[in-house]
Write a structure and sequence with these properties.
The protein has 496 residues and is mainly alpha-helical. The protein has one domain: Amino acid/polyamine transporter I. It has 18 helices and three strands. A three-stranded mixed sheet has the order 1-2-3. Helix 6 packs across helix 7 and helix 10 packs parallel to helix 12.
């Protein structure tokens, strides 16, 4: 919505938009804002049906099929990576059913933050939302590095110029509007799926079980074998890279305020996306090393291309086609996670947890600064070139948020059993309890893989928590949708 300059100034939270009626609730303080505040912070509604949401879910993740997951072989060999993937697939499967219920019940742009806010109050909401933000701000940086790996193989061009180009182009597309961005994303994702199918057709005739077990065996490791070359400990170490095959599917609920019918479309979209990802991830996990070599895949920057070149030759047409088309997979995730982090920043900022100026939307109803600021942060991280390190950092934030979201599902089932639930999780809290336990295991695995990455993640997360503790908890916005959801629930409970 376009505002004149005087109106924009009067509603600019950096100056004063709060008519400070300072209501205190526990550890936080609320301020009331005038009507212009929310008018400047509106997303375009009704742009996404369940097919677009399913496409969004696949596009969030599909880059994980093209690069990054293969580093798990260095940690645990094929056997360790396979067992880790089975455990993580179970975690995500259970979690998606829980998120389907939560997103249909609380359809706001805050996603996990909104769920946790309802279940655990503003502190729990903030901790969950910022954990998701940590994941979504860092993951594109890792993907940018992997994109560089593919362009380096294809064009001989890699490094900062590639990272800057992709950030500039795809943040720019998002600035043009949600509907256009999601449609472009769906086309790119379809192209990426085509590349994966070409890869499957090309590698299937060359599959051999022997290729899966060519990693050197660490005879000093407990339980070491050709299937577990680093022993039982290798399973643990492979977990973050197994997560990379599914990381960010939980971002579908972030589009809730822009969907046509969130109560119906959200469950259908996120569950469909998960089923597709399970199929694609399984095919890649077996065929890339099984058609070439697990040892070759362990540190390859472009594993699918490397596998095809191993079989058909370095200049083969199929390898070149998959390299070119396969870039679409990395681009799809890069593109869609930019959407995800902007909505997470938007929701947290609109509610006052992050600086309020980050949530102001343009005439196209796009959160401009919520797109640009995390993009600058991600680009700076990409300059390290440490894609494997950033995977672990992203997984740190992701698994922390998973545990908090599953705890939210369990708490809401116990605290508010009569709350309207358009979709109900099969198995109820047993299902989400499985996801909760596995998310704790996965979180701990980040310290096994790279203590440095885990500690850097903890530093970034700690800085956000400090901002909340020292400032933003005293300046929350009472009229933000997630806060109003919670206030209404509290009022209803007091009347009973």
């Amino acid at each position: 919505m376009r505002e004149d300059s005087s109106s924009a100034h009067s509603n600019d939270p950096s100056s004063t938009s709060a008519t400070s009626t300072g209501s205190k609730q526990g550890a936080v303080d609320y301020e009331s804002v005038d009507s212009g505040y929310l008018e400047q912070r509106q997303l375009k509604q009704g742009t996404a049906g369940w097919i677009l949401l399913a496409g969004l879910g696949v596009s969030y993740v599909i880059s994980g099929d093209f690069a990054g997951w293969n580093f798990g072989f260095a940690q645990g060999g094929f056997g360790g990576m396979f067992i880790a993937t089975v455990l993580i697939a179970l975690m995500y499967g259970c979690m998606v059913f829980g998120l389907a219920e939560l997103s249909a019940m609380i359809p706001t742009a805050g996603g996990g933050y909104g769920f946790a806010r309802r279940a655990m109050g503003p502190v729990g909401g903030f901790l969950t939302g910022t954990a998701i933000l940590l994941e979504y701000a860092i993951a594109p940086a890792a993907i940018a590095v992997f994109i560089g790996g593919y362009t380096g193989t294809l064009l001989g061009v890699d490094g900062p110029i590639i990272y800057a180009l992709f950030y500039a182009v795809f943040v720019g597309i998002h600035l043009r509007g949600t509907g256009e961005a999601l449609k472009i994303m769906l086309v790119i994702t379809a192209v990426a799926v085509l590349a994966l199918l070409l890869f499957v057709v090309g590698m299937l005739p060359h599959f051999s079980w022997d290729n899966l077990t060519d990693m050197p065996v660490n005879t000093d490791a407990v339980g070491a074998s050709v299937w577990l070359p680093e022993g039982y400990w290798g399973i643990w170490g492979a977990i973050p890279f197994a997560i990379w095959l599914f990381l960010a599917v939980e971002g579908v609920p972030l589009a809730a305020e822009e969907s046509k019918d969130p109560t119906r479309d959200m469950p259908k979209g996120i569950i469909t996306a998960m089923l597709i990802l399970l199929l694609l991830g399984g095919l890649v996990l077996f065929l890339a090393p099984g058609g070439s070599s697990a040892a070759l895949m362990a540190d390859h920057a472009a594993p699918l291309v490397g596998a095809l070149q191993h079989v058909y030759g370095e200049n083969s047409v199929l390898a070149t086609v998959v390299n070119v088309v396969g870039l679409a997979g990395l681009i799809a995730s890069f593109f869609s996670i930019i959407f995800g982090y902007s909505r997470q920043v938007f929701a947290l900022s609109r509610a006052g947890y992050l600086p309020r100026w980050l949530s102001v939307t343009s005439a196209r109803k796009v959160p401009v600064l919520a797109l640009i600021v995390p993009g600058v942060f991600g680009f700076a991280l990409s300059l390290t070139g440490a894609g494997d390190l950033m995977i672990t950092m992203a997984v740190f934030g992701a698994t922390l948020s998973y545990g908090l979201m599953m705890a939210s599902h369990i708490l809401l089932r116990l605290k508010e059993p009569d709350l309207e639930r358009p979709y109900r999780t099969p198995g109820g809290i047993l299902t989400t309890s499985i996801a909760l336990v596995l998310s704790v295991v996965a979180f701990a695995s980040t310290f096994v893989v790279s203590r440095e990455a885990a500690l850097w993640s903890a530093v970034f997360y700690g800085a956000l928590v400090a901002y909340f503790a020292l400032y933003s908890r005293h300046h929350l916005v009472a009229q933000a949708p997630e806060e109003e959801f919670a206030a209404l629930a509290k009022a209803e409970a007091e009347l009973q």
